[in-house]
Amino acid sequence: MPFKIISSQCTGCSACETECPNVAIFEKGGTFVIDPKKCTECFGHFEEPQCVAVCPVDKTCVLDTSLPRYQPPA
Amino acid sequence: MLAVEPKSCGISVGAGKARCRAHGGQGDLPPAIWDKVKKHPCYSVEAHHHYARMHVAVAPACNMQCNYCNRKYDCANESRPGVTSEKLTPEEAAKKVLAVASRIPQMTVLGIAGPGDPLANPDKTFRTFELVAKAASDIKLCLSTNGLALPDHVDTIARLNIEHVTITINMIDPEIGAKIYPWIFYNHKRYSGLEAAKILTKRQLKGLEMLSARGILCKINSVMIPGINDRHLVEVNKAVNSRGAFLHNIMPLIAASEHGTVFGLQGQRVPRTSELKALQDACEGEMNMMRHCRQCRADAVGLLGEDRCAEFTKEKIVTMTVNYDPEARKAYQAGIEEERRARRGPRHEEVGEHADGTSDIKVLIAVATKGTGLINQHFGHAKEFQVYEVSRSGAKFVGHRRVDHYCQGGHGAPDHLAAIIRSINDCHAVFVARIGGRPMSELNKAGIEPVDQYAHEFIETSAIAWFTSYLEKVQNGQVQHVDRGDGAIRQDPMMSVA
Ligand code: SF4
Ligand code: SF4
Ligand code: SF4
């Protein structure tokens, strides 16, 4: 499950961008976004998702459960 | 002997030494160190009357959270602790430095102090320093950090010839640290509570030791948080002193609920001016205390008491032609040094002998000055007052009070006048170049004597002359000496706490 950034809460500090082991995070119009194709939840790299651990605003980097593949089958 | 004379400082130790250094001249500093600080407005109180610094905001990321910082805040119209609206790339920052250097020839120091932690943004920070060193080798490089990542970067700091590093150290006791820092991000993990504070204090002190060992001058910033670390800062002072720190800067906590910081929202009390001064006095032993810090924004430009960042916005810099001329800067600074030499003569004046009963009187005075060591500002135009403590050992700079200037578009603003009086309420007199009738009578009513007879003269000589006549009046019963109240510390800072 990839992470996403709630852009209304992002301060644009860029801390997550440098910590992401997969270069999945980039700036877009002053705040940051995660490329879901690149995010691995940091599996194989670190114990904790780095973007979540470093972000100064709680609940800003969150699991993106809205993607169709995470919806329960109809 | 009553006067503090520079020549006596070479042989004296202890309190005498510290007192002499507090005057900010060379004192007993070895020439090599004096050379590093004499044009640094933060490291030398005397230099701050003459030289300017600038900060560039290239480092927005941070690796920890402090309860006095709210990183969500970012509004172009307001200064908030550690936050600035204009983040620059290293290339933009280097251009800005050159633009400022060519327009403000007394700008001698480039600091990188956030808005996050410069060492949490090492690539951007060091790249900026490299670009500036290449383009303008006469500018001193200066770095502020929370210290968490410091030990990893000491070699780079030394290699890039960064001569001044400020570390913010608010505790050496993790129990206290846990009340200040909710979490840190270290070694790819988030730590909180005691564990976080333990790692942080270890890293900070190690970084300080490593820098001292390399002869890099370290200033320690500490935020005074009443009820949390106020008493403890005396211990912090000893710990950093023994590890070779050069200067200790104890700053008052800024916390108002509208800042949205944890402390602001909790209603954490902020220090009073008298508490801040008492703590600074208590720490002033072996180590030099900084009392002229303005808690600048991460994009501040100019002399410490002013902020000219609005003249150098990103937009304006793009259109500016940069004409950086090291020779012209050198010539201008030689002029400043000439002025400083002229000033040094009259500064250590003796206060006349007086009979018992007045010998331990100390008063604070507020001075309206444009920042060159002269009383040269109109009361109504002053955006800050510099505060001096005058006693029989001389006049000593002990702080400043930022205010909204009283004259607004040619009219006096009564609200501002009341606020100014509140902010200098602990002073016995206010020295000005000129003053209008209304503020004069209000000040008199409040028990603060407006003094305009020393217009355009040196602050310290004038303060001593006034004080001598004050003591005479006390002695012959014309005036009764009373202690004054407390000044208010302003809570809307131009601030960057790294
Ligand atoms: S969870 Fe890890 S991989 Fe995914 S965006 Fe965050 S830091 Fe990058
Ligand atoms: S760390 Fe958080 S606030 Fe900073 S850029 Fe990333 S998502 Fe935004
Ligand atoms: S915050 Fe203090 S130490 Fe830093 S530049 Fe301003 S006055 Fe100097």
Short recap of the structure:
Chain A is of the alpha+beta class. Chain A has 2 helices and 4 strands; from the N terminus they run βαββαβ. In chain A, the strands form 2 sheets. Chain A has a two-stranded antiparallel ribbon with strand order 1-4. Chain A has a two-stranded antiparallel sheet with strand order 2-3.
Could you explain how this protein is built, in words?
The complex is a heterodimer of chains A (about 70) and B (about 500). By secondary structure, chain A is an alpha+beta fold. Chain A is about 15% helix and about 20% strand. Chain A has helices spanning about 15-20, 50-55, and strands spanning about 5, 25-30, 30-35, 60-65. In chain A, strands 1-4 form a two-stranded antiparallel ribbon. In chain A, a hairpin with a 2-residue loop joins strand 2 (about 25-30) and strand 3. The longest helix of chain A is centred in the first third of the chain and has 5 residues, at about 15-20. The model of chain A has no long low-confidence stretch (mean pLDDT about 90). With about 500 residues, chain B is α/β, with parallel strands linked by helices. Helices cover about 35% and strands about 15% of the residues of chain B. In chain B, the strands form 4 sheets. In chain B, strands 10-9-8-5-4-3-1-11 form an 8-stranded mixed β-sheet. In chain B, strand 15 and strand 16 (about 410) form a beta hairpin. In chain B, helix 5 runs parallel beside helix 7. The longest helix of chain B is centred in the middle third of the chain and has 21 residues, at about 195-215. The radius of gyration of chain B is 22 Å and the shape is globular. Residues about 1-25, about 75-85 and about 495-498 of chain B have low confidence and may be disordered. At the A-B interface, helix 1 and helix 2 of A face loops of B. One iron/sulfur cluster binds near residues 12 and 15 of chain A.
